[in-house]
Amino acid sequence: MILKNRVAIVTGAGSGIGQAGAMIMAKEGAHVAVADRSAPGAAETVSMIRDAGGSAESLILDVTDDISLEDGIASVLKRHGRIDILHNHAGAQIAGDLEQVEVEGFDRSWSLNVRAHFMAARFVMPAMKAQGSGVILNTSSSSGVLYDREMIAYTTTKHAVIAMTRQMAGDYARFGIRVNAVCPGWVDTPFNGPFITQMGGRDAIEAYVREKVPMGRWAQVEEIAESILFLVSDRSSYMTGQILVVDGGEAVV
Ligand SMILES: NC(=O)c1ccc[n+]([C@@H]2O[C@H](COP(=O)([O-])OP(=O)(O)OC[C@H]3O[C@@H](n4cnc5c(N)ncnc54)[C@H](O)[C@@H]3O)[C@@H](O)[C@H]2O)c1
User: Its Gene Ontology molecular function terms (predicted)?
Assistant: First the structure.
């Protein structure tokens, strides 16, 4: 098991890609703090991990609430004495172009997709520096390397995640801390609701994925989880500041 005795915090781990990432980390021996604002979602992930013989705990919090986030991270540190992995995954899509998107929606995107990653990294950093090791993984998106039509809040924030990842990686490599980003393409989770509505429904999105993704299909959450595992484990021990795009080839064409 390549993550034996490691302590991981995964935000947005109560569903979708975050859940699959939490599962694969636990399968490889990590204790996973499943951080999510949805108590049922977090509970589901924790029981899936425990049923599979792994170790996990729920951390019910809204990552945009600085005090809850700081307290939650501090509680994990207090219980386990270390934090080896932070996967900043919780994020949301708010549709609209410059004139359509509500300003409040733009602010909410920034707060969740960028600022919460920044704050969580800031809260774990003293422990990682003291340990002389640690891994931070930020979830960006293929929309962090491409531009979607009429999705200004989402693409702006996901591009910003990449800039922040590279900056943090350069600043903290000397402390033994690696920082990378994963950019998933189309994964069929509840997350895509706003885009599907904007596109005009299920048939439209299925046609879009067939047409736009060279591999012609959605990714399974498990396929993204394999890349997450690579980036949070010693398998990527000489990689930092890198952006791993896992999108069936969409960014290539
Ligand atoms: N699904 C995709 O196609 C896709 C593609 C590229 C990138 N992503 C990225 O993956 C992340 C989530 O996608 P998913 O497919 O796993 O979504 P999902 O909807 O399946 O899960 C998101 C989870 O995040 C939690 N969450 C949302 N806001 C939160 C908050 N403020 N505090 C704590 N928890 C919160 C939700 O409760 C939910 O459990 C986002 O960062 C998104 O940009 C997804």
Answer: oxidoreductase activity
Q: Three-state SS for 134?
A: strand
Residue 2 lies in a domain: no
d(CA 19, ligand 1 centre) in Å: 10
Give the Cα separation of 205 and 181 in Å (integer): 26
Print the domain residue range for 220: 7-252
Beta strands 134-139 and 85-88, pairing class: parallel
Q: Which CATH number does the domain housing residue 21 bear?
A: 3.40.50.720
- Annotated catalytic residue within 154, 172, 208, 238: 154
Question: Is residue 154 annotated as part of the catalytic site, yes or no?
Answer: yes
Residue 231 domain-assigned (yes or no): yes
Residue 224: CA count within 13 A, CB half-sphere: 28
Atom of ligand 1 nearest to the CA of 190: 19
Is 129 a member of any domain?
yes
Tabulate helix, strand, coil % of the chain (nearest 5): 50, 15, 30
Q: Would you write out the chain's pLDDT as a tens digit for each of its 253 residues?
A: 999 999 999 999 999 999 999 999 999 999 999 999 999 999 999 999 999 999 999 999 999 999 999 999 999 999 999 999 999 999 999 999 999 999 999 999 999 999 999 999 999 999 999 999 999 999 999 999 999 889 999 999 999 999 999 999 999 999 999 999 999 999 999 999 878 888 889 999 999 999 999 999 999 999 999 999 999 999 999 999 999 999 999 998 7
